[in-house]
Amino acid sequence: MYIDGQWTDAESGATFEVFNPANGALIDTVPDGDARDARRAIEAAARVFPEWSTRTAHQRSGFLYRAYECMMARKSDLASRMTEEQGKPLRAALAEVQYGADFLLWFAEEAKRVYGETIPASRPDQRFLVLHQPIGVVGAITPWNYPVSMVTRKVAPALAAGCTIVLKPAEATPLCAIDVFRVLEEAGLPPGVANLVTARNPEPVGREMLDHPDLHKLTFTGSTEVGKLLARDCADRLKRVSLELGGHAPFVVFDDADPLHAAKGAVLVKFLNTGQACICPNRIFVQRSIYRAFVEAFTDRANKLVAGSGFDEGVRIGPLVDRSALAKVERQVADALEKGASLLCGGRRLTENELDQGWFYAPTVLADVTPDMLIYREETFGPVAPLIPFETESEVLKMANDTRYGLASYVYTRDLARAMRMMEGLRFGIVGINDINPTAASAPFGGMKESGLGREGGREGIREYLETKLVGMSI
Ligand code: NAD
Question: How far is CA 51 from CA 56, 287, 463, in A?
Fold first, then answer.
């Protein structure tokens, strides 16, 4: 763990093991922190907050620029670590490290653009000023699926705004977080400004964040279930909260689109990170007249995806994170088949060529999925693509919006008016029109409905860490 500028063990002396999900091999052990370590970290962050928050924005920006440079210099080491610890193919890991570094660069720039305002007053002897000031100490909790970029997406804007931070990474991927903190240390992070508490059991660390009076804001990325739990506790204490939660993205293909082009895009984003991304399509709607052509092209591509170690050339499908992720996928597929879906490829755990040492599931295509199936409602977080035919635009818009989630959505069409209507009608925080990667550090990322509160990245990203202060002045 990294607390107050020191690499340290847990106060209890406990440690936990980190395994490679592709082969079950032990990678390393890390400190198993609890409430006492979280308290120490929060107190360090609170102690240095007055000093960090009163540095100039240009000084904080300078630190983030250096962190960006250091991360770029360590790009390939970080990516290898990620492939080993999280399982994604090395090429995807390299792309993620770049995405993670992009947040350091973007918020190095945004730090200098926290502008205030003056407001005309009705009294001639009064002036109004609006200031934006850092919230204070931030608690951050991140998931395992994007173990570098989810860390920088929180740490960079918090530090840019002048906040100090305590991060608890996911128990499956603490090593990536440790490597990110080595980068911050190398860039000259002052002691206490950012602190890292690793823990096998997240609950006591999360509780300390919620209970400690000096922690003013919680930012969380993870499941909707845990997000709601934390939001409830934040409400009791009126702590600020940002939530990036689960998704159930619709992917809509109209018959004026090229089915082959759309199928290529759909496969890329569906099987991204083995389906373990919050923006992965969870329902692929295809207009009836091109349904067969799309299904064939999609299945053909899915069939060709190679599963294995992310270090092997040509591998596109890594392991699932753990046994329970595998069980969830198996349950959803069995349920869909029982209720009448047809299995076009995959549909089983992969065990050949020593894949049984890890948590591999074959890229799977289910056709003719219907609303009564679990997969139509539940986030899958695995390599299973449910295909659903539709007839009309108004019907598919209704079906696409028929979910409690509202993170990403996708539309393939060549009709501009239709693209506009869909863009406006979809109740999702992100819409990709003929675009399977509608994300960047410079753009606001986040969800509506049960996919969360607040935005990360873009101009909006830094606002999550700022308070608004009104100053009235009689002159
Ligand atoms: P999770 O909710 O189980 O865990 C996320 C983090 O919360 C981990 O660090 C975990 O240790 C911690 N946590 C769990 N229970 C806690 C508790 N009681 N108190 C405090 N902390 C607790 O989710 P996961 O399985 O790690 O991640 C997958 C989920 O994350 C998916 O639902 C996915 O859609 C979502 N996700 C969302 C985004 C986004 O930007 N919207 C990005 C990535 C992942």
Answer: 10, 59, 20
Token pair belonging to 256: 């004026």
Instruction: Please give the order of strands across the beta sheet that includes 117-119.
Output: 117-119, 126-134, 466-474
Per-residue pLDDT tens digits for 249-295: 999 999 999 999 999 999 999 999 999 999 999 999 999 999 999 99
Alpha-carbon Rg of the chain, whole angstroms?
Answer: 23
Amino acid at the residue 445: F
Q: Which of 57, 404, 4 minimizes the C-alpha distance to 181?
A: 4
Nearest to 41 by CA among 179, 183, 215, 175: 215
Residue 119 · residue 97 · CB < 8 Å:
no
Return the half-sphere exposure (C-beta side, CA atoms, 13 A cut-off) of residue 70. 18
Which residue is it, tokens 């198996």? 330
Q: Given the structure tokens 């909790």, which residue do they identify?
A: 141
Q: What does the pLDDT look like over 73-110, one tens digit per residue?
A: 999 999 999 999 999 999 999 999 999 999 999 999 99
Query: Which atom from ligand 1 is nearest to the alpha carbon of 199?
Result: 11
Q: For residue 295, which phi and psi values (nearest 5 degrees)?
A: -60, -45
Atom of ligand 1 nearest to the CA of 222: 30
Q: Contact 186/107 with Cβ under 8 angstroms?
A: no
CB within 8 A of 389, min separation 6: which ones?
285, 286, 287, 288, 291, 368
**Does 222 sit in the ligand 1 pocket, CB within 6 Å?**
yes
| Gap between the Cα atoms of 366 and 371, Å rounded | 13
